[in-house]
Design goal:
Number of domains: 1
Radius of gyration: 16 Å
Shape: globular
Structural class: alpha/beta
Helix content: 25-40%
CATH class: Alpha Beta
Number of helices: 5
Distance between the termini: 21 Å
Strand order of the largest sheet: 1-2-4-3-5-6-9-10
Largest sheet: 8 strands, mixed
């Protein structure tokens, strides 16, 4: 593999066809690989989203190889938007690629739609050891997101949202976190909206802190 800091651009094979992907190559001897998923495709969400980029940088800072990809129908990814159903398979395809490429435990991070969708693939996946749900949506795009699966998901979980998130009132989000299995951590970034505008550095620092504590590594 190329040196740490190099970015690979390629396509991975998903059930709907090829998925456009970027891999920030990790350091030799990395302890984990990581995947970061993007917000809603029909509302401008891509793997180049600022929150996704900052989450990638937080994870890459530990030397992990970090993959981002475009869901079906986004960028040069094949297929059409499937309202979150087929997108679960897209996440599974990305997790499979990371496992086959690196044979390392995986840290999953998803933002917004990418969290709601990705948790469904990542929670039951034996290779995924820790989960980060950023801007977890409750009421968004005219639908209500539910997270019943988290009650049985005993992997370490970080929930991080802005306390002014338009798609998740803090009280409702607190209930979702409350029903999730331990271990878990819930962080509300003060005065931040759904996209952490003006607060991306705080979001990134919280991710770095939690990952460091959870996997016992320093940057």
């Amino acid at each position: 593999m190329s040196s740490h800091g190099h970015v690979r651009s390629f396509h991975l094979h998903g059930e709907a066809g090829k998925l456009e992907a970027l891999l920030n190559v990790g350091r030799e001897g990395a302890a984990y690989a990581a995947l970061v998923t993007h917000p809603h495709p029909l509302f401008g969400g891509t793997m180049h989203n600022k929150v996704v980029f900052h989450a990638m940088k937080a994870l890459h800072g530990f030397g992990f190889p970090v993959m981002r990809f475009n869901f079906r129908g986004v960028g040069t990814s094949a297929g059409e938007h499937d309202n979150g159903r087929g997108e679960i398979d897209d996440v599974r395809a990305a997790l499979r690629w990371l496992r086959d490429e690196y044979h390392l435990p995986i840290i999953f991070a998803g933002f917004s739609f990418g969290a709601a969708t990705g948790l469904r693939a990542a929670c039951p996946d034996a290779d995924v050891e820790a989960l980060i749900s950023i801007g977890t949506p409750i009421n968004a795009e005219g639908r209500l997101y539910t997270y019943d699966l988290l009650a049985a998901c005993t992997k370490p979980k970080l929930f991080i949202s802005g306390d002014h998130d338009e798609f998740a009132v803090p009280e409702l989000l607190a209930k979702v976190v409350e029903q999730a299995a331990e271990p878990k951590r819930f962080v509300l970034v003060r005065d931040a909206d759904h996209f952490f505008a003006g607060h991306l550095d705080e979001m990134r620092a919280e991710i770095e802190s939690w990952v460091g504590q959870t996997v016992g590594l320093t940057r």
